[in-house]
Design goal:
The chain is mostly helical. Among the domains are: about 45-120; about 160-230, no CATH class. The protein has ten helices and four strands. A hairpin with a 5-residue loop joins strand 1 and strand 2.
């Protein structure tokens, strides 16, 4: 029988080397190095200070997918239990922070398709060697989106006029895919479009004024539209007094006595015959 080594510990010691007391809490790792079926995700994403947990998890899932995989809202909602509303909001977060880019392209035949580009390192367009520089200890300052400029307000903001303005703004992306607006941007800009429409401008004229000679690149489409709605607002139409109605023109009739033609509201005698024969009072 072998002799036991009484100096060997009965189980693996935990804690920091040189310390006799165990840890009092916190995170520990039990990791195994992956050799197949793994995805490298940067700490700048998984430890992002502004993204929601859903957006971080969705970005990790998208980065693990192969090329040409479908990542539209309906496909992701069918894969996860969060639903279309929360998934759409998470996609907008990733797009705002540069982890996603969504583009619309025209393919042969004239059909327009959507293409989603996943960026594992926002700001670095070329896929060179990954940056292994540790993240700075200081918490990054949050990026605050600059508010949109004010827009003109209509004199009579009727629901019908505002709905017409909202439909016009929602259709601008058909003129230029870069004019894809969020719900909040559309709500902010709709009164400005309504102010144009109530000045006797057609929707086609307003659409042309907003989409002609767009700059390239177009960084903030909603801010540009707000600027154009304000600076290019046309004057009110000139006042036109209501015209008087045209005189009544009675049809031609033949006199019952002399058979002469005259104009009158009803058949009967002409004026001369009425003046010549006095009316009989009973």
């Amino acid at each position: 029988m072998d002799t036991q080594n009484l100096s060997a510990p009965s189980r693996a010691q935990s804690g920091i080397a040189g310390k006799n007391h165990p840890r009092t809490g916190g995170l520990d790792h039990d990791h195994t190095r992956h050799s197949t079926r793994f995805t490298v995700v940067g700490n700048h994403l998984v430890q992002h200070a502004e993204l929601s947990l859903l957006a971080i998890g969705l970005a990790c899932h998208i980065q693990s997918l192969p090329k040409r995989a479908r990542v539209d809202i309906k496909t992701l909602a069918a894969r996860f239990p969060e639903g279309t509303t929360r998934i759409a909001a998470a996609l907008r977060e990733l797009e705002a922070h540069g982890y996603l880019r969504r583009e619309r392209q025209r393919v042969p035949g004239g059909r327009i398709v959507s293409r989603t580009i996943s960026c594992n390192q926002p700001g670095r367009r070329n896929h060179d060697e990954p940056d292994h520089t540790p993240a700075p200890a200081k918490k990054p300052r949050p990026t605050r989106k600059k508010p949109l400029p004010a827009v003109p307000q209509p004199s009579y903001p009727s629901p019908t006029l505002l709905q017409q303005a909202t439909d016009l703004l929602a259709g601008l992306r058909r003129e230029d895919p870069r004019l894809l607006l969020t719900t909040n941007d559309t709500s902010h800009l709709a009164p400005g479009v309504a102010a144009w429409l109530e000045r006797d401008l057609t929707p086609t004229a307003v659409r042309q004024a907003l989409t002609t000679d767009l700059p390239d690149p177009l960084c903030r489409p909603a801010a540009l539209l707000a600027h154009r709605l304000t600076t290019q607002l046309p004057p009110p139409p000139p006042f036109r007094a209501p015209s008087s109605p045209p005189p009544v023109r009675h049809p031609l009739r033949n006199c019952d006595d002399c058979d002469r033609a005259f104009r009158g509201p009803e058949p009967g005698r002409c004026r001369d015959c009425r003046d010549r024969i006095p009316a009989v009072t009973i």
